[in-house]
Every structure is written in structure tokens, then in C-alpha cells.
Amino acid sequence: MGKLKIGVIGIGVIATTKHISNLLTREDIEVTALCDVDTEKCVKANKDFGLHAKIYTDYKELCENKELDVVHICTPNPLHCPMTLEALKNGKHVHCEKPIACTYADAQKMITAAKEAGKKLTSGLQWRYNAAPLKIKEMVQNGELGDIYYVKSQQLRPRRLPAYGVYTNKALNGGGVLMDGGPHSIDLPMWLTDNYEVESVRGVTFDKMKDFPEGNDLGPWDPENFDVEDTAMAMITMKNGMMIYMETAWITNMMQEAPGVIASIAGTKAGVDMVGPTFECSVRTTKIVDGKLTTEIKNLEEPVDMNAYDINHWIDAIQNGGEPAILPEQAATVTRVIEAIYESAATGKTIFFD
Predict the structure, then answer these.
(1) How far is CA 251 from CA 85, 166, 248, in A?
(2) CA-CA distance, 106 to 85, in Å (whole number)?
(3) Which parts of the sequence belong to the Gfo/Idh/MocA-like oxidoreductase N-terminal domain (predicted)?
(4) How far is CA 203 from the centre of its chain?
């Protein structure tokens, strides 16, 4: 294949810091189209990245551009499904940011449309591709942990709510932290154990901290424009009996052992944790050695750029005919779990999958 021509819809923080910046490290692509209702963002991106991309305000017009091969969707969550369907209808491969959709039904529509179009579809669940998760995945695949029966996943940000954009507006964002950090915190334990077969979900959500905007790393927010959850927890039971306990929060008076999205795994042969102080680059193993309980911390010297990993594997999949690093079916299961957490939190019931 020759150079891929790529269009990007939604020119916000994720588009510029992850998508465009990493796409432009490759010689086999061109970013030739940008779309945003705020054209100044497109103008600025053209200037900042030295692009000469055509600017659109209507995503349908961008998708109808016959020269484009690929569309990257970096818009607020409720727009993911209609924009993806439009791009696929026009014969484009689609990278859609997480969550892939706000509902499982919409995610299924997107997957079906991609298959019918014969095009590739992926979603931005790149947090699994840091050094520590990749090392733990290797240990799981090698059987070093034995029979895995419990995984704990955390992304507890003491004061790191993205006050920019529409994150605190349910109508415009589809939800709160479950739609932001939640997809990563749900996907990571499933990907590490290669287990997306969910039996049931029990979840709770909180909005206790919206009236305490002081000290936020990403600026102040307006408590009057805040109708989403800031914290969520869930117990996810898998069909093989394994249990996942997930915690995610934008604002909390708690700290976790390492920054980012982290996981701890208990197996019959050994347990493993992601620990600090480095950013997802240290792995602690606990096991019996010569009859004694032993703990070892391994500091991984080579960090992995998760965003570059996602984008490079995505473009390679299109160019070489393989699978993207993040499968749309995995992303759809994550969305289904998010839906179940919301339903469980609202009803107080455990939600069972078919």
C-alpha cells in the first residue's frame, strides 16, 4: 500500500497529543483533513504541525472525501457511533477513541458496519501498552502466575479531573469518570488475563466531590455544570470464576501505589503488582521460593510509549493486512460493562450477562 491519507474529526487535546503527533512520525501517512466545529482549532493544528490539511466543520463532508483512507474520531463520546458509521459507510478504516460507544448496542452496530464494509475498526484503549502491563502479560502467558482467580484494577486520581471540554456534562459526554478512566481500568485486567467473558457486574458510583474544585491539576470546574459521577467501583465476575475489582476516580482523598492505570493479580503460583514510584515501569512479584515467601521488585529500564504503540500497530494493521492492537470486540465488552455498572448503581442489583 502507498501513503495513507488520514482525516481527524475533533481537534482537541487527545487529537493533538496522541493522534496527530504520533501519526506524523510515520512516512507512510499524510494527515490531509481536519474537522471541528471550532475551525480555529483546525487552523492551529495546521500551523503547529506544519500541515496543509483541508478544514471541515461538517464531519459528513469529511467522510465523503474520496481521497481519504482512514478517519480518526476524537470527539465527545455520544458522537462516536454516528461518526464511525458515517465513515464506514464511506469506505474508511476507523480509529475511534474510547469508549468505542456509549452503549453496547451502538458498539455492535459499529462492529457490524465495519465487517460489512470490509474495513478495520479499533478504539483507543492504549493504557494496556505500558512497560509493566506488557511484562505482566508475558508472565501470565508463560504460566508463571498459575491459575489466576483475582485481579484488582485502579486509577485513583487524587485531583485530576479534566476540567476542559465537556467531561462533567452527562448529555454531552455520556457519563463521568466511567467514560474517561473507566474504559482503561476495565480493559486492563481483562486484557492481562485474556478474558473478556463476563458473567455478572455489581457496581456503585459517587458524585460526592463535585463541590470541592480546589487543587485540581487540570484547572477548576463549575460545580453547577457537573451532573456525572466522579468515582466508580465494580465487582466483575467472569464466567470462569475469576473476579475483577475495579476502582476509578477523578477526585478522591486516596492514593494508589503507582501513578496511572495499575493492576494487581493473584494466582496460585505467584502474585504480581504494578508499583511506584515510576510510571508503570515497576513490577512486584510475590511467590514461594525454597519454602519461603519472597517479594521481588523489578524495575523495567525501557519505558513504552503507549500512544505510539497504539497508533503504530493500527497503521501497520491497515498497511499489512493484520489485526489492530485493540480489537473492537474487546472495546465493545468494556462498554457493556460500563453500561452494567451504571444500571447496577441505579438499581442496587447485580447485572447478569447472557
Answers:
(1) 34, 16, 9
(2) 10
(3) 4-124
(4) 19
Sequence-distant (≥ 6) Cβ neighbours of residue 67 within 8 angstroms: 5, 32
In order of their start, the domains of the chain are 4-123 (3.40.50.720), 128-304+336-352 (3.30.360.10)
User: Among residues 248, 229, 260, 249, which one has the least CA distance to residue 159?
Assistant: 249
Residue 325 carries which DSSP code? S
Q: Does the pTM of the predicted model rise above 0.85?
A: yes
Q: Quick check: 236 pLDDT over 80?
A: yes
Rounded to whole angstroms, how far apart are CA atoms 76 and 65? 22
Beta bridge partners of 231: 206, 249
Read off the C-alpha cell for 66.
Answer: 474520496
Give ∠ CA 122-127-128 in degrees, rounded to 5: 85
Pick the closest to residue 29 from 319, 302, 270, 284 (CA basis): 319
The type of residue at 352 is: F
The pLDDT of residue 256: 87
Lookup: cell for 174: 455520556
pLDDT band at 277 (very low <50, low <70, confident <90, very high): confident
